[in-house]
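ok new one. same drill as before - structure tokens go in, u give me an amino acid for every spot. 114 of them this time. try not to just spam alanines like last time pls lmao
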């Protein structure tokens, strides 16, 4: 993925890592960090910053807040997913609601997709 680095987004991704949403923190500290594979937070891939990325499993995990369910958000996510899929990456999307209310099911779904 090195050829897809975007130095313009490096500072933004560092800032996002320092200021994760509560749902991102919950998934990161209570699940992803415990797995035997490495996940990166706020990883730059091309012109995008993905929430979580596992290179060995070719998985991207996106947590979606309410803006992702508006017309512009849906279109932007479709474009992002198409680009990531073209790189051979599987994109798993979960709503913040699911992280808050169905955390165990989200974790199980991630395991099922690895």
């Amino acid at each position: 993925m090195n050829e897809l680095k975007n130095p313009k987004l490096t500072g933004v991704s560092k800032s996002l890592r320092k200021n994760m949403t509560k749902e991102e923190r919950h998934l990161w500290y209570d699940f992803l960090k415990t797995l035997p594979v490495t996940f990166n937070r706020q990883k730059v891939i091309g012109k995008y910053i993905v929430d979580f990325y596992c290179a060995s499993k070719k998985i991207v995990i996106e947590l979606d807040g309410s803006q992702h369910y508006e017309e512009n958000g849906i279109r932007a996510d479709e474009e992002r997913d198409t680009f990531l899929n073209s790189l051979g990456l599987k994109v798993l999307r979960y709503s913040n609601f699911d992280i808050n209310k169905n955390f165990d099911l989200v974790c199980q779904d991630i395991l099922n997709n690895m």
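Residues 2-112 form a domain with the Endonuclease; Chain A fold (CATH 3.40.960.10). and btw The radius of gyration is 13 Å.
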